[in-house]
Each structure stands twice: as structure tokens, then as C-alpha cells.
């Protein structure tokens, strides 16, 4: 997949910080130190405290310790991606990423001596297939590939890698490929380091490309998903035009259909041997470990790897763009336009200037585009972001039209903002605010070990200097407006690419056809000797930590409002929420009013003034109305706490409606509502809500067109002001105690003389499903999206351990029954899963949900495959043991912290629970047997009526096929959406 990294974001430190004397600035220099026999480099005053090692074989190791949670985020990154794919085999790096999950000669195989000759035969057959043009001969060769693959699969153990990782309590097992990086991702318990390193060192020693033709089919599915993704097509068209000489534009990460149809295992092996060498790889870790011990362990595990010269990527420099270049992309999603400018690559100072320029244009609050185009509602949406790569960078700008606007109108408005930038038509204090927000961002990025690891990984694969990253705030502080103006004038002219995303049929779409595939063996019960060795490795026990809602949450009172607080002892950030036990089921206007607030001011301040002030304070607010609860949220820095809350309260309590802004908002809202009808994910969510609740359901509980037309500005302002007078709780995480906060909030957040009663709630009742139903909606797409849904019995807390264990075993990940059967064995889908879901409130019912995203011509096969699993639960004692062990270890190392402690408490209250339910799952789930899960499956899932919610192109699926699964009902978009 593509990774959109290095998007400049900000929201930083308070203005008071800038008023400190220059001498208070910290210096950032590379230094060298030694410990435990290893030399490392570090940057002085680096908040991540990262150490940069290079082992004797050239392997880079970057370690950032963080003791807050007993877990470690790991990345194994290779500096190779689609940019270095052979021109005759595009998509190869991405193929290889998938194959690195298939094992080696030591794991993933029942009998390597018997499996290897068959795999060699398959490799030779693919080379014949690759070089053969005659379709009849190709078909015969493929049939032989399918036959031999079936024989080889008898000796393969599917997903053994995933089983080992799950057994040690790993989370987030995944990988991704982009232009110049392929990265393997794991989040592991701190006590699983030895197991993790043993598996990873073996994984990269000699990967075996087994179960290849079914995995290739998964890549086909990924390609077809891309054909249905208009955003991806626009991005690829942009890079093709910006980089005609560089592989950024000459080839795509997923590869061409022609190359997907003609893979070469020989070329994949050559790619691995060329680029997967230690001097081209990095191991990045952040979390709970001692770096002196960790580096020795990594050296011992990966010291076997041998240095090898990596060929340099060469390309002809791009010629200057002297006039606008245009491209057009067609598809069913709403129209938009994307503009792109070319800049120097990551290692240059210009790349840092580009990031700053991106923040001046778009920072979510006070950028030129934010204020001029979004706040003033001149466009449906608009934004800019930098995309920084090694050879070149880009500035991407995108905008969507309101009703009646052409894409050229959108382009003109965006270019006008660039003209302002080039003229210096922005306030001097904007640069100060950006610096303040970047300081806050540094704190936020270092709060969580996982985000810290990601930054270090991305810096490594981009060949950037970490010192420059750490010193970015100092760099910003040195930049003057004149520098920005000169930079903008240097790079922003008529030298852009414009990609017009238009609505209509994409006549260039060529689907990857479904080849005939015989399901392969997965050998669920089998275990290699290597797996047994890894699972037997000793580990220190990590004791679980459960929440005690009475001890872990501080309580106080501010007038009639209960304060629930958790103290932040780590930094100066605060987050405060006003929590209301009411939502859009109480008032359909609430979600509209919450959004409209972004365009309101008061008698003394415009909406733009508020945005500038919040950004100056490095504060941000939002209103999140759900169905039955609402959060009014504010975050920022403690030194600006009172001013931030005062500003927030002023806006909430004194906002004034404006008929002109309301009319513009209504037009934009109508356009957004229309766009939602052209979004397949929204359509599928609507189908599921219809299936669960009937014609009147939470999804279409929205204003009708007539109701929206009748809404006045006073109506919406009243909703916002009334909200503040309803009973609510104050949820706080920050440097103050609840006792310290109470008198401040009593002053800043005064209560009315009498609180208003919350309006009565509209209740939606989950339907009994008495017979199978098929709910179908048409969408112009290559794939078909299928959801199974069934309402089950009401919530019962006693079921929680069984539900958790069942989900882990049945449909929870790549080692689950569902994934192994539908993707690994039958190659029917790129994405598939299933889970038994528990509700948010105790008065509601559980429900079963399953999903397959597949090619339209595989719809029947996919439905039959999932139905088999919903009818009969396959038995695998090994899979059950793996699920038990993985769930237990994940819970033991799970730490609920910060304001999540309070949100956990509120969730428990809604479900009628008085304690942390994770404890029940931890204590009871590992004791469950297959018979327990089978009984649960029989009582809750098997033989029950289901609603099939299907979104597909009606020309690609048969009505008769659909009717065999239940009573068919084709739903109109108006019925689904309620307008």
C-alpha cells in the first residue's frame, strides 16, 4: 500500500515559550558514546532519547526506550520498494512483502525435503507461464501450477508465522510497501524479545515462497480494490505526470495487470538477494527495554547476515515543468481536483521549508487555505500537504467543489491562495503560531512509543538526518517571512500538474480475471520443530494491571458537574471533555449544529478570529455528537489552560448565527450528503443499519431535505447553547489534580441556575431476524462487498470471556479460522473477517457480523465459503491454544492509561459493569475448551437467519444468484440515506 508519510502537522507550544531568551534554546548535535561493548550515536537534547547503532555487518539499529507500557513497537525496514522494481516485473517488491509471511525451510513446512522439489517445479512452471504467449498453452501450464501447488500445500503449514507472533502476544502484525520502503510491523510484549528476534532472524534468512498462487490471487484482489479507488488512481496519475523519468511515476507499487499475470519467482528471489541485505536494512524499536541489553540480543540474532553492495538507483533528472500539465481520471466518486508541484528530496533543507510552507497553507486552524477557503465556505473542502521522498518531494493541494462550481473554479481559488503566499499576504504571527504548535506536536509524538518508532523508521527509510528532525523547531524559529516568500516564488509558478477527478465510467479499467484455483491445504494442527522451539523459549512473567475505577480516577465537584480526572505527570498537555449522556437520538439537529459551530463567531469575534486565537494558544477543540452521547473536547498546554477554556466557553455560549454563513453551509452540507451517496463504504454502512433496525434506523436518522431547508441559524445556535445547560460530566487529563481543577472550572464553566432536562430520546429497536434477507445496493465497481449481520440476544456481561475467546479463534486475525479458510486456502478475498460484537449499552443486543471483499465473479464462492464457517465451526486444538495464549499475553501487557481510564469507566457504566471487564476475560477465557466455543457457535451463530448486505455492480452479479440466499430487496439510495 502507499504510505503518505511526512505530512506536516502541527499544534504546538504556547506563545509564552517564544518569549524565553535565546540562550534557553537547546543545542542539537550528533555525539558518540559507548556502552556494553557497543558504540552508538545520539543527538543531544533528543526527547526520544534514541540511540543509533551500526552493527559490523552494516545493519542499522535504532533504539528508543520508553518504560510506560510493557510493550515494544518494532519495525524491520528495508530501503527498497516499488521504485527499485525491475521494469519488466513491476509490483515485485509488494509481492515479496506478502511472501515474507510464508515461512522458511525451517518453519511453515511439514517436510522440507518433500516440499522443496514441488516448489522448484512450481518455480519452473511459472517461468514457462511467464514466457508463453499462446493462451491455450498458458491455460494448460496454469492447470499444472494449480495441481502441483495442491500437492505442495500438503507439506505446508499456512500462517505459521502469524501463529508464532500471536502466541507471544504480538499485535498489529502487518507490513507495507511504498516507493522506497518495505516495512514489517510488530507490537510485542516486552518479555517476548528473545522469541521475536529468533523468529525475525529466521524469517529473513531464507524465505520460502510457498502457497504462492493463492497469495498471488490475494494480490489480484488488492489490485482490483485499487481499481475501485478513485483517490488512488488520481494519486498515481499525479505522480506519472510529475515524474516521467523517475520510477515514482513510471511504475506503481501494486504493479501492472500484465506483470501481475506473469510473475517470476526467480525474479522475486533475485530481488530479495539484492536488497534484503543488512547494510540496506534497519531494525527500529521503541518501548520497554534496556538498550544495552537489546543491542547485544539483536547483534547475536542478526549477526549471520552478510554485507553486500546494493545497486544505486539511477534516473534521468526531471526536466522543468514550464506550463501546467493536466490529467483526467474517471470513476463513480465525487469530482475533485488535485494540484502538484515538484520540489527537491528529503535530504535537502528545501524539504524542511516545504513542510513549513505546507503548514502555512493548511494547519487545520489558521492556514491560508483553512481561513480563506474552508472557513469562508468557498469550497466543499480544501487542503495542502507535503509528500517528501528521497529523490524528489511534492506539494499536493486538493479541493472539492460546492454545487455549481467547476473544477477550474476550484483550481483558481487554490492558486489564488498560492499567490497570497508568494506576496507574503499572511500575518507575521502565523509563523510564531506554527512554531508553538510544532513544540506541542513534539510532545504529542513522544507520548506514545508506537508513534515515536514510526517517526524513527520513516526518517531511516527516507535517508534523513535525525538531528534535523529533532532541531526542526529551531529551524522554524530562524525562518522569516521574507524566506518563505522567496521560497514560494522560486518553486510555485505555472509549473504544476492538475489531475481532474471526474465522475463517469473509467473505460481504462481492466479487471484482473479470476483464475481457477483448487483450495489448498492449511494443515491447522501441524507444527514445525522451529515453532515448538520458539514457543518453549523461557520468558519472564508480566503481571496484568487492572483498573480500579475508585482509586484510578480522581473525583471532585464543580457546581452540579462531577469532575472525573486523571493526572498527567509526564508533560504539560491537557485534554478536557464535557461528556453528555445525549446525542443525535435526542435531537437530529445536534450533528448539524456541531459542524456549523466551525463557521460561527460572536458579537466581538469572527470565526476566523477564533481559529487564529486557538492556533496561537496551541489549542484545538471539537464537538463529537454520537447517537447517545456527546463529547465537547478541548486540548492544549497547561500554561494556556485558562485562556483556552475561556475562549472555548465564549464561543460555545455566545456564538451567533449568520444567515449568509448558514446558507453557504447548507449548500455545502447538501453537496456532502450527495457525495455520501457516491461512497460505497457509506452505502454498505447504511445497508447494515437497515438490516439491523429496519426502514427507520440510526443511519438515516438525519434531516430530510425539507427539514434541512427549514432550519434557521437561530435553531442551530439554540441547540449549541442548550447543550451547555444539560447535565454533563467534566472529563479531564492534565497536570492538575481534580481538587486543583474544581475551583478553576467553577469559575470558567459556570452552571445555570437550573439545568435543563435532556430531551427525550428516540429509541431504535434491533429487529428479530426470522428469515434470510438480501439487501442489495448498486455501485459501479469491480469488486463486491458482502456483510453478514444478525442481531443476537441482549448483552450479558457473563458472556464477555467466551465472546473474546471466540473472536480470537474464529475471525480475529491472520491466524484465525476465517482468514485461513477464505484467503489462505481458497484465495477468495484480500480482506475477510468475522466477529461477535457486544453493544455499547446493556439494554441492547449483541450482533454477529462477517465480511468478505471479493471480485464480483467470486461472489457465490465467497458466500458459500463464509456460510460453511457460520454453519460449522472447524476444530483445531492448536489454533485454540494459540488464541488462548495470545489473548492472555495481550491482556497481561495491555495498559489503559491517561484519559482512556475515564472512558473505560464510562463505557463500563453504560454496560452496567462495576469493574474492569478485562480481568474476567483474562481469568476465564484461557480455561475455555473447543467444546465451549462450539456450543457458543451453535447457540449464537449456526443455523440462524442472516441479513446479507451486498454492494456491487448490478451488471456483474445475477439477481437469481442473490435470491438463493434469501428474499431480495434492492434499496434505493434515498431509502438508505433518508434524504
Number of strands: 25
Q: How many helical stretches? A: 38
Radius of gyration, whole Å: 29 Å
CATH architecture of the largest domain: 2-Layer Sandwich
CATH fourth-tier homologous superfamily of the largest domain: Metalloenzyme, LuxS/M16 peptidase-like
Strand order of the largest sheet: 3-4-8-5-7-6
Helicity, as a percent range: 40-55%
CATH class of the largest domain: Alpha Beta
**Protein structure class:** alpha+beta
CATH topology of the largest domain: Cytochrome Bc1 Complex, Chain A, domain 1
User: Strand content of the residues, in percent?
Assistant: 15-25%
Query: Can you tell me the residue ranges where pLDDT is under 50 for at least 5 consecutive residues?
Result: 1-24
Arithmetic mean pLDDT: 94
Amino- and carboxy-terminal Cα gap = 35 Å
Task: Kindly give the count of domains.
Answer: 4
**Overall morphology:** globular
Main sheet summary: 6 strands, mixed
